[in-house]
């Protein structure tokens, strides 16, 4: 779901912080948390990571560091609006999880490639 964005973010990190993926504790990774996300683990806090990468938050989603919040439709009936809001937030939580899973997949791929490279030497 977020493979393209994560690949873009990983490439940026490769350029700015080579070997970055070795510093990530995937068991601790939680993309919704400012200190446990990729940037939080690398730079201490999400916003500080954006600053170090010279990136605006509006561009963070394109690099797999953020999930844009849903915008539920506004309906005239309050109860229906609340149901839409709850559904939108559940979907947002699923997207955050999918983003974290995509980062884990990218990091695990890098460990496998590194292990294969070492075993060939």
3D architecture notes:
The structure is a single chain. 61% of the residues lie in helices and 0% in strands. It is an all-alpha fold. The chain starts with a helix and ends with a helix. It contains 5 helices and no strands.
Observed structural traits:
61% helix, single chain
Q: What Rg, in angstroms, do the CA atoms define? A: 17 Å
Structural class: mainly alpha
Low-pLDDT residue spans? none
Biggest sheet statistics: none
Overall shape: elongated
Give the percentage of residues in beta strands: under 5%
Cα end-to-end separation: 35 Å
Which whole number gives the mean pLDDT? 91
The total of helices stands at 5
Helix content: 55-70%
Give, in order, the helices and strands: HHHHH
How many individual β-strands? 0
In brief, what are we looking at here?
By secondary structure, the chain is mainly α. The protein has helices at residues 3-16, 38-43, 46-52, 57-60, 78-120. The protein has one domain.
